[in-house]
């Protein structure tokens, strides 16, 4: 590097004017013109680059969508386009995007505002009518919602009352042989929880009778099924004991018209079982199943079980 001349000072503040810095006016003017030309070219180029970038944004997000899109989505959608990379830095791209999005939002807002004002000026009475219609519709919707809520509440209370009455029947009525009047006076009246108040039911006493009939039907099915299981168990035991005597089995098989009382010396007779078999008498089902049903179930099971041993019988009871 060449050393500065001894008569030239490199400190720019040492000169009062540019005439004393050792440069000529012609040289200074040429430099200024060149700088301005280059600066102008840079500004024009930047404007063109920004314009192309904005065109890319509008193509990617048309119809004003760019006004509400996020920057990360813009990057994802446009980064493969050459116009995206023409803008210098990432910060410049984002600044250009935000400025363009802001202008588009302003343009859209300005475009909507005059139309709204014109519409209001065009027919204010129509808007008033529409407002009254909306208010009336809101009132109708409110009343309908209240009616629906009231119906649901009533249905909920009615279902709860039905469930309470059915639960009371299940707790207090264990047989199916009593009528509604007899069971109500004997078992249901005076419930400490107030479940015997049939006025709470939807339909009053008629609904109470329906619920009682449903309960009795369930009890009857359950008791008969369980008594049949008990009868089969005990008859099987008695038959096994009886057929252990071969002579009794042969005699019973030869007598095709034997009655239930005579087969196996009455081993499977319900009447004798009811009098002598304490396991049957002491069973809880013995008290709840009616006598007529007990005889029918017992004899039907007896006939079926004896047929498996080759004994044909006819019921004498």
TrEMBL record:
Species lineage: Eukaryota, Viridiplantae, Chlorophyta, Mamiellophyceae, Mamiellales
Gene3D superfamilies in the record: FF domain
Protein's UniProt name: FF domain
Keywords assigned: Repeat
GO cellular component, one term: nucleus
One annotated GO molecular function: transcription coregulator activity
Matching InterPro entries: FF_domain_sf, TCRG1-like
Source species: Ostreococcus tauri
Chain intervals for the UniProt region annotation (Disordered): 1-28
Keyword Repeat applies: yes
């Amino acid at each position: 590097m060449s050393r500065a001349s001894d008569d030239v000072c490199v400190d720019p503040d040492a000169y009062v004017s540019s005439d004393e810095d050792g440069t000529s006016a012609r040289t200074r003017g040429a430099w200024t013109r060149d700088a301005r030309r280059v600066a102008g070219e840079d500004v024009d180029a930047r404007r063109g680059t920004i314009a192309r970038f904005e065109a890319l944004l509008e193509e990617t997000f048309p119809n004003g969508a760019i006004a509400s899109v996020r920057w990360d989505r813009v990057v994802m959608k446009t980064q493969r386009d050459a116009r995206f990379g023409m803008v210098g830095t990432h910060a410049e791209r984002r600044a250009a995007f935000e400025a363009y999005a802001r202008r588009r939002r302003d343009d859209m807002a300005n475009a909507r505002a005059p139309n709204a004002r014109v519409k209001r000026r065009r027919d204010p009475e129509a808007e008033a009518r529409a407002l009254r219609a909306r208010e009336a519709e809101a009132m109708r919707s409110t009343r309908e919602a209240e009616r629906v809520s009231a119906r649901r509440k009533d249905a909920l209370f009615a279902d709860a009352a039905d469930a309470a009455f059915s639960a009371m029947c299940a707790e207090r009525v264990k047989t199916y042989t009593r009528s509604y009047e007899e069971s109500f006076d004997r078992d249901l009246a005076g419930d400490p929880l107030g479940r015997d108040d049939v006025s709470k039911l939807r339909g009053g006493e008629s609904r109470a009778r329906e619920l009682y009939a449903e309960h009795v039907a369930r009890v009857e099915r359950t008791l008969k099924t369980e008594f049949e299981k008990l009868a089969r168990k005990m008859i099987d035991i008695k038959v096994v004991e009886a057929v252990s005597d071969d002579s009794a089995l042969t005699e019973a098989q030869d007598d095709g018209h034997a009655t239930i009382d005579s087969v196996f010396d009455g081993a499977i007779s319900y009447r004798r079982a009811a009098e002598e078999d304490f396991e049957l008498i002491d069973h809880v089902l013995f008290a709840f199943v009616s006598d007529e049903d007990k005889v029918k179930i017992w004899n039907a099971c007896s006939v079926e079980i004896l047929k498996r041993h080759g004994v044909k019988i006819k019921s004498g009871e």
